[in-house]
Amino acid sequence: MRTSYLVCYDISDEKRLRKVFQAMRAYETCQVNLFGNAQISTQAVQALCEAEVPICYFSMGGWFYGITTGLNERNVFLRRRQFRLAEEDCFALRLARCLVEGKVRNQRTLLQRNHIEPKRNTLAALKEMADRAESATALDELLGIEGNAARLYFGDFAGMIKPDQAEGDSHPVDSFSFDFEGRNRRPPRDPINALLSLGYSLLAKDLMVACYAVGFDPYVGYYHQPRFGRPALALDLMEPMRPLIVDSAVLTAVNTGMVSPRDFTRVAQSVALTPTGRKGFFRAYEMRMDTLVTHPLFDYRVSYRRLLEIQARLLARVLDGEIAEYPVFTTR
After folding, report:
1. How far is Cα 114 from Cα 110, in angstroms, rounded to an integer?
2. Given CA atoms 255, 257, 259, 265 in this order, what sign does their dihedral have?
3. What is the location of CATH 3.100.10.20 in the chain?
């Protein structure tokens, strides 16, 4: 059996060209992510395509450009069912209700676990939003419920940030702090929103990889409506996972000092991470993806990275008619 190796070279020092930085077996690699002007050889691309390992391309700031995959989209029958059911409003609504309900319940759980002193009225309102999502009668109604829940959740998000622990008394802050007054994006205007936006971009990429692995078209969704260039199905599957993976990784990065206020820079009206800050946050994100959780449906422990593919495969079983409802992953 032929074994292919991926070899990473450090060419930053002209006197030590082709210094080996790291080597790994291709079949032990789940995906390869290239940020900025990193180069990859044709031989490496061929080996990864043969092993059905995706290659994902990002800007240095974390903007997701695209993906290279091998011939792993052979399940044309699943995509035919995916396209057909996307035209059935009742199916789309039933799935969307599960996704929004699960997202709101996971937001509520994160507040209960991490907030210094969560407000009772916020927790009660989030529970009400989740119950309303369960019985919503239209996608527009679900959008309103999700928006109200997000306003409540991010309104109390600052209580999960521990500034003394994050910034430290011996490290004065020059121009940035971890103050958070609400969600903003395109562009993010403060450090916490910059971390959230980068994390959601990474999670969307990972769910696109999961969709391709199962055989879905990630651009045809049910809750998120079709739009040019938007991976609607990946965003559908991402909704319940946002608080569990990205929001939790952001809190870990900030509260443990993996990312500090000095790791940000201002570009026009936006705030972006420095290379050191990106490295720190990527480490926090990968730590979260490697965290083991017990899947309530199968009662065994899996990493969050593996969980993403499991959830995509469960959706495929729903489309195949093997199970009646999509079992959204929620924690207590």
Report:
1. 6
2. positive
3. 5-68
Quote the distance between the C-alpha of residue 115 and its chain's center: 21
Distance of alpha carbon 168 from alpha carbon 224, whole angstroms: 41
Phi-psi region of 21 (alpha: psi -120 to 50; beta: other; left: phi over 0): alpha
Cα distance between residue 328 and residue 332, in whole Å: 13
Q: What is the pTM of this model?
A: 0.81
Task: Report how far residue 165's alpha carbon sits from residue 254's, in angstroms, rounded to the nearest whole number.
Answer: 8
In this predicted structure, what is the pLDDT of residue 319?
Answer: 94
Q: Which residue has the tokens 């937001």?
A: 107
Angle (deg, nearest 10), helices 76-86 and 304-319 = 70
19-77 tens-digit pLDDT: 555 666 665 666 677 777 777 777 777 777 776 677 777 766 556 667 777 666 667 88
pLDDT of res. 229: 80
Does domain 76-319 bear CATH number 1.10.3090.10?
no
What DSSP designation does 138 have? S
Residue ranges for the chain with pLDDT beneath 50: 1-2, 5-7, 9, 11-12, 14-17, 165-174
**Residue 88: is it exposed, middle or buried by C-beta count within 10 angstroms (0-12/13-18/19+)?**
exposed
Residue-wise pLDDT tens digits, 242-273: 999 999 999 999 999 899 888 888 877 888 88
136-144 long-range contacts (CB < 8 A, ≥24 apart) are: 136/93, 136/96, 136/97, 136/100, 137/93, 138/93, 139/92, 139/93, 139/96, 139/223, 139/225, 142/93, 142/96, 142/97, 142/100, 142/223
* Per CATH, domain 5-68 is 2.130.10.10: no
**CATH 1.20.120.920 in the chain, residue ranges:** 76-319
